[in-house]
Design a protein that fits this description.
The protein is α+β, with helices and mostly antiparallel strands and about 220 residues long. It is built from 4 helices and 5 strands; from the N terminus they run H-H-H-H-E-E-E-E-E. It has a 5-stranded antiparallel β-sheet. The radius of gyration is 28 Å and the shape is elongated.
Length: about 220
């Protein structure tokens, strides 16, 4: 009994395992906070990339077309296809833009009744979402875009309106950031005089594909 009492007394005074015990209790909290920080940083970076990409696509789309000093600049399906393929290259392979997202490019113009309408619209990506602001052929009552940020085309001119929607791909777990759908919009007025009558084909005998918005695909995979 005396030996047992002495042993228990020594154990009660022994502090050699306190630090290990404290570390074992605290480590899960530090680990969780660290993982959350990494995931949040990646989400923020992806959100920034989506926003910048939408701006670049809109800017590039406002510049495409052949160059001629004799007539208004024509745009071709091949130009739009190059634009969409370029967006995927700019996003990078790690993002897999068209496997997890969708780019919607709209040409906002003024119709014969002096009303805003979407003349043409092209889409790329397997993400099953549609335009929030209208589809090809829609006549719009009050410009294009969210309330307070609507854009308008002037008569004889066009505005390129881009919607980019992306399903966030987590590094660890989507539950660490909650919302996984990332959306961004951007618009640019077409810089030069553009032929607004139609989107042309380079060769009528061998037309380039039209990536219309009824298709959910990654044509550049």
């Amino acid at each position: 009994m005396i030996r047992l009492t002495a042993l228990l007394s020594r154990l009660r005074k022994d502090r050699s395992g306190v630090a290990i015990t404290e570390a074992a209790l605290i480590l899960p909290f530090f680990l969780g906070a660290g993982l959350w920080g990494v995931e949040l940083a990646n989400y923020s970076l992806t959100t920034m990339k989506v926003g910048q990409l939408a701006v670049h696509v809109a800017d590039n789309a406002s510049r495409i077309g052949d160059i001629s000093t004799l007539e208004n600049r024509k745009i071709y399906e091949a130009d739009i296809n190059d634009l969409l393929e370029g967006a995927a290259l700019q996003a990078g392979g790690r993002m897999d833009l068209y496997d997890h997202g969708r780019v919607i490019v709209s040409s906002l113009e003024v119709n014969g009744d002096a009303r805003q309408y979407i003349h043409w619209q092209r889409c790329m990506g397997t993400y099953n979402v549609s335009s929030t602001y209208g589809v090809e052929g829609d006549v719009l009552d009050d410009g294009m875009g969210p309330n307070g940020r609507k854009v308008y085309a002037l008569d004889g001119e066009a505005v390129i309106f881009v919607e980019l929607q992306y399903e966030y791909q987590p590094l660890i777990s989507a539950s660490l950031v909650g919302k996984t759908a990332i959306r961004s919009i951007a618009s640019y007025t077409v810089r030069s005089s553009r032929d607004l009558s139609q989107v042309y084909q380079v060769s009528s005998s061998k037309p380039d594909p039209q990536y219309t918005c009824d298709k959910f695909q990654n044509a550049f995979a």
